[in-house]
Design brief:
The chain has a single domain, classed as Alpha-Beta Plaits, CATH 3.30.70.100. 29% of the residues lie in helices and 27% in strands. The protein is α+β, with helices and mostly antiparallel strands. It comes from Bordetella petrii (strain ATCC BAA-461 / DSM 12804 / CCUG 43448 / CIP 107267 / Se-1111R).
Length: 119
């Protein structure tokens, strides 16, 4: 049995662009699911208190006072499905100009993750 695969994202969004980002992410979620993603989540930071024993998500995202933190993930049946899905999504014209002016792509953290535990 192949393990599911996850793409994860951490980014800072200017507070005054959150509505624009939400609309963009809603479109992106529909496109990703149409092309094969099992789940698509975009979550905005709500409780990001700094714990002296841990780094905060705000620090990790490099979020300023005028920004919110978004933690997002996309779930796929497998890494091969992820690769196929992402190729189709990147070629989809509905997402051609999604990030322009809404957030700084160079500050976004992204990675692909193999499942270690699924409970």
């Amino acid at each position: 049995m192949q393990e599911q695969y996850v793409d994860g994202f951490l980014l800072a969004i200017p507070k005054d662009k959150l509505d624009t980002y939400q609309a963009m992410a809603s479109t992106a979620g529909a496109v990703w699911k149409e092309h094969g993603a099992l789940d698509y989540r975009e979550c905005v930071g709500d409780e990001l208190h700094a714990d002296p024993n841990c780094a905060s998500f705000a620090q990790a995202a490099g979020a300023g006072e005028d920004e919110v933190v978004v933690f997002a993930w996309i779930l796929y049946p497998s890494k091969a499905d992820r690769d196929r899905t992402n190729a189709a999504v990147m070629a989809d014209p509905r997402l051609a100009h999604c990030e322009e002016g809404v957030f700084d792509m160079k500050r976004m953290a992204w990675g692909g993750f193999r499942t270690l535990v699924a409970a």
